[in-house]
Specification:
- With 347 residues, the protein is α/β, with parallel strands linked by helices.
- It has one domain (11-313): 3-Layer(aba) Sandwich (Rossmann fold).
- The chain has 14 helices and seven strands.
- It has a seven-stranded mixed beta sheet.
Length: 347
């Protein structure tokens, strides 16, 4: 059962526009949720508590342009770093910027990557896993390549699959957007469009809702610190108007949004979208051949079916593709294909 790896080679979609944590008040808000101190970011918290003595050899997943690897190296958290990304352009940029640092950047696909047993004493995931299609396979590989005493540190988006927010959450986001000052509203605001996402970046949040569950198969999560975002992320990310406000106007608007973000998360009306957590490898699980094979079989079947349904995993998303078709003939073809795939897989 072979399935083509879903990757995004268009690096232009990354590192553009502005994100909510580019706003100083948001950075403090996230830091306080992560570490209990609005002045201490999670990287510095991790260094203080886990890297008093630098790790010997660290692995970074989907490293992008190399900025995080350089930060960890310069802060003496790791002595030697191995890092990969599927984009040759981003790896080229990372190599140019590393200088004389002991960092090995190479091109690699997270869905196919392999490493030696117990090769690393630190694995770092900085918003990489929500771009991974074969999440179960990679988590198994990571548990195997991490030394028994090693640490797996994660800063990750754990929101819904392809940002398809539940109705109540999206209603609340929309209501708050509507009542923001006109100059502070996000332009091009709208519910994330699956057909567009499949074209621009089919890996975006591909299995984000499964990250914690899948990691827990092969790792023991020793601590977890969520930082909310269920309201604020959509209202502040890619919102250039926030940066055009006066200092006072930005402060008042952002504080209002963050207050509602915290309140609605506490009331459990919206889920947290981001988390910082630490995990340790459960080596014994890897010895259970039956369980490991069953996990992988389930993932392989899921990906095989999705590959035949234009990269969708839910009926509602496939329906959105049908609706997005330009003519009736294509819609009919897609409907017939759906039922054929379901029947063939059932056999």
């Amino acid at each position: 059962m072979k399935t083509k790896s879903v990757v995004n080679l268009n690096s232009d979609v990354y590192y553009r526009s502005t994100y909510w944590n580019d706003i100083p008040l948001v950075f403090e808000y996230m830091s306080e949720n992560f570490t209990g101190d609005k002045k201490v970011w999670w990287v510095d918290d991790f260094k203080r508590r886990y890297a008093k003595k630098p790790f010997e050899h660290g692995l970074f997943l989907n490293c992008g342009d190399g900025r995080h690897e350089i930060e960890f190296y310069d802060k003496k958290i790791i002595k030697r770093i191995t890092a990969f990304d599927v984009s040759p352009d981003l790896i080229k940029t990372a190599r140019k910027g590393k200088g004389g640092r002991n960092i090995n950047f190479f091109v690699g696909d997270a869905n196919k990557i392999k490493f030696k047993n117990n090769e690393f004493d630190l694995v770092v995931n900085i918003a990489a896993l929500h771009h991974v299609q074969f999440l179960n396979r990679l988590c198994r590989i990571l548990a195997n390549c991490l030394r028994p005493e090693g640490v797996f540190v994660n800063f990750e988006y754990i929101g819904p699959h392809r940002n398809q927010y539940p109705p109540v959450q999206w209603l609340l986001i929309s209501l708050i957007q509507r009542h923001l000052p006109k100059k502070a509203k996000r332009e091009k605001f709208g519910y994330p469009h699956v057909p567009t996402m499949l074209v621009t970046d089919p890996t975006e949040a591909i299995h984000s809702e499964l990250i914690r569950k899948t990691i827990a198969r092969y790792f023991r999560i020793t601590e977890r610190h969520d930082t909310n975002g269920g309201i604020a992320y959509e209202l502040l990310t890619h919102n250039e108007n926030i940066f055009k406000l006066s200092k006072k106007g930005q402060k008042e608007t952002v504080e209002r949004i963050l207050y509602l973000d915290r309140l609605l998360t506490r009331l459990r009306l919206v889920p947290p979208l981001f988390t910082y957590f630490i995990a340790k490898s459960e080596k014994e699980v890897l010895k259970n051949d039956y369980l490991v094979k069953e996990y992988q079989k389930s993932e392989d079947e899921r990906e095989f079916e999705a590959s035949r349904l234009d990269g969708t995993y839910r009926l509602i998303d496939y329906v959105r593709l049908i609706v997005n078709c330009k003519n009736t003939r294509d819609r009919i073809y897609m409907i017939i294909k759906y039922f054929k795939v379901k029947v063939n897989i059932a056999r």
